[in-house]
Amino acid sequence: MIGDDFRDIEAEYIRRRDPSDDEGHGDLISSDVAETPGIERRPMNTFRGREEVIKVLRECTTEQLTYLNTLVIVLDSRLTLDLAFKTLLENRIRCAPVFDYKCNKYVGVLSISDLVDSLTFLRTALAAGSNVRGLHCLTIMSWREFTQRNIEDSWTAYINADASLQETCHTLQDKRLHILPVLDRNSNQVVDILTHARIFRFVYTRLQALQGRHREWLEQLLDMTAFELGIGTYSNILTFNYSSTVASAANAFFEKKISYLPIVDENGGLVDLYNRSEILQYYFESLDLAMNITIYDAIHARRKTRPHLPVCKKTSSLKEVFDIFRETRLHRVFFVDEMKRIVGVISLRDIFHAFL
């Protein structure tokens, strides 16, 4: 199915994947953000409250986050990509572990992010005159092997259930992952899949129970702003508008490894979010690999309501930002000015990086 004529396509595919790009950074539309006068930056390590967070991460185990009797859907590595992604969509899940029955072992996790990667690969192949016309032409493993992912390093990364949350967070950060399977040592089975959001909610709930001076130390930290602590991105914020094509959005998802894109109006005000999973829905409804339709046209007939916009002010306290993350269960919060123009963005990855 996959021959030597794909090698040039493969080289272009891998060249475009730049793992050095950080989440939330972009250059499509730059944000004209100047340093806020009168605000002094203070390093995180000067606050004793940071040690309270680190203590929770160090003392709690991954097993404390895992749900009892969790039903984990497992994908056969021989499944074609279209069936695999339809399974994710129909079960309303973002990822699932992959099992190789020939080798009798777990071999990785397939996620919505992989859909964007595979569609980008197929669009590149189609432009090069390949006869691969859709996700039904590739199995999970054949696509993985061909695109030369570092399977031993990232795709098959996992954490044991008895590992500390600190170790789990380090694995997510160091390997630049969004999801991490939890393996039971005894059964060698995937018992759950963790994300930054799950870990954040657990840790934040534990922190609410602090008493006495330990709580005072934490509150001193949470009263600061993310900007003062140097957490987040405050220039070159990647934004799109409704007239941008779905293809350009897919490229941004692929190259920047982000989960959703901010949509701004003609004045630069934030008006909407375009989610990575919406590309999944669009593709399966239209089977359109070219994706030259505008974002507005792609979502107008499919949505009943707009998604909640996770926003706050640049002067909002870290506690206000944390509360938004807990309530929305999203991975990114945008800082906006009085005109709703984006002046910064903070992700859960940014927050964990500050505490590790």
What would you say this structure looks like, in words?
With 356 residues, the chain is an alpha/beta fold. Helices cover 40% and strands 15% of the residues. It is built from 15 helices and 11 strands. α2 crosses α9 (212-222). The chain is flat, with a radius of gyration of 21 Å.
Question: Helix and strand layout, with pairings?
Answer:
Blueprint: H1 7-16, H2 49-59, E1 75-76, H3 81-90, E2 95-100, E3 105-111, H4 112-127, H5 140-146, H6 151-155, E4 159-160, H7 165-174, E5 179-183, E6 190-195, H8 196-207, H9 212-222, H10 226-229, H11 246-256, E7 260-264, E8 270-275, H12 276-286, H13 295-300, E9 311-312, H14 318-328, E10 332-336, E11 342-347, H15 348-355
Give the overall silhouette.
Answer: flat
Task: Give average pLDDT, whole number.
Answer: 81
Q: In what range is the share of β-strand residues?
A: 5-15%
User: Segments where pLDDT lies below 50 for 5+ residues?
Assistant: 1-38
Describe the structure concisely:
The chain has 356 residues and is an alpha/beta fold. Helices cover 40% and strands 15% of the residues.
Short descriptors:
356 residues; alpha/beta; three-stranded mixed β-sheet; 11 strands; flat
